Write the structure tokens for this entry.
Amino acid sequence: FDLYLKLRKLLTELEPDILHFHGYPVDFIGVISSLGLKVRRIAHIHNFHFIGGKKRIRKYRFVSRYINSFIYVSKAVMNSVDPLYNAFCSDNRVLYNFVVAERIEALLRKESVTRRELGIPENSVVFCFVGRLTDNKNILNLVKAVSYLRDRKNLYLLIVGSGKLEKKAKELVKSLQLTNVIFLGATSNPFKYLKISDVFVLPSEIEGLGIAHLEAMYLGLPSLISEKVPSKEVAYESSFITGTSPESIAKGMEILYKCEDIRKALAAKAKKVVANFTIDRYFERLYRIYTELMK
């Protein structure tokens, strides 16, 4: 209760025109604290409805009468969430995520890595996964997919990230006797690993909109993604899309492993697609939303 009072006092002093909330419980707290104030409210939803359960759905439906616009990071998230969260607001729209090119370039200038340092032959085809090692990311099926391709010479998988399935994934690699899967842990600079890779891979079961996918495209990588990755909405031209089973992922990996021409074609499209998702373009779109709400 004390938090609501403090926020209410601050909002009364600042007199903002727009409150833009990113995620629960910030949006719920913000709406309740600003009731009665002359302000527009935006709820920005970054993930699917089942992440928070029925209690969260009930709260969103209640506060939706006080929200002026719901923004979603993808059409997939909007189609899943809006019918459940939004009982009253007539304005809903999609605003895709963005790439901060300056940050990527700065980190690459600061730190780099070579294939040789990782024990990878230069003529290898390297797939790179970046993300949390969780059920949502489908990391165990990705490892199993590599086991189906154990006879493919110089095929490597880099796994950049950590999470609750890290130990299980490492045990699976050991039990399958895979020597071409390299765990690199969590890092603030995954770009040094993407830079030495040939294909970005994201076989998720659940995904809001993977920023890592956009960042990989910025670096000119073709992508292998599952049909459940919403960034296919904007990146289908630069991505090879598979199912989420180990067999389906393995088939996609084998095609991209064998066909350099396909990798090059997808990579060329990636640079063109991601040019539309810079931070400058993002703020242009966001400014238009703010302007429309203030009319």
